[in-house]
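Q: Hi! First time doing this. I have a protein sequence and I read that you can turn it into a structure. Is that right? Here it is:
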Amino acid sequence: MDVATIAKAKSPATAKVATWRSMSANDIESLVRVANKIHPDLPESDQVFAERVTLFPAGCLALVEDDGSGDELCGYVISHPIRRRQPPALDSLLGEIASDADQYYIHDLVILPEVRGRGLARQCMEKLLAIAKRYNTTSIISVYGTATFWGRFGFMVEEIDEGLKMKVLDYGDDATYLERKNEESTSN
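A: Yes, that's right. Below is the predicted 3D structure, encoded as structure tokens:
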């Protein structure tokens, strides 16, 4: 039984099936609406999201209901390689993916409350961690007390320097820098 069939079987009869698909520039407007619902205190411009989709499309996915061809997102993920322990500042452009990037970074994984509880985060993380295997570690800045959620995927709190602590604080007083060791890394 495929993942979509399992998600449908576990969902209430009235619920639609949600699926992850590649994100495109056409999704940015809907993505920003979702981001503003979930992260009203952490606003980022549409240019930030559009740039990430352009620079690293493999790490940018859209969650849509039904057959995946809809325009309205019910979730998204933005992720890309970075230099270790150098996540971008909130609402900042990258310019490029550094050629010496040695860590995978999950910038944001969002699923609207009405479609949570269907295993969609796990599906997304399986896709991301398959990409992340190219790097020794993956990092995320956890917000809104979600460190326990990320712990299910092997993320742990790490000691960080003062410069990174200041950057993390821009994400909120409860923000926490987390890392996980990846399996089967082929980098350094």
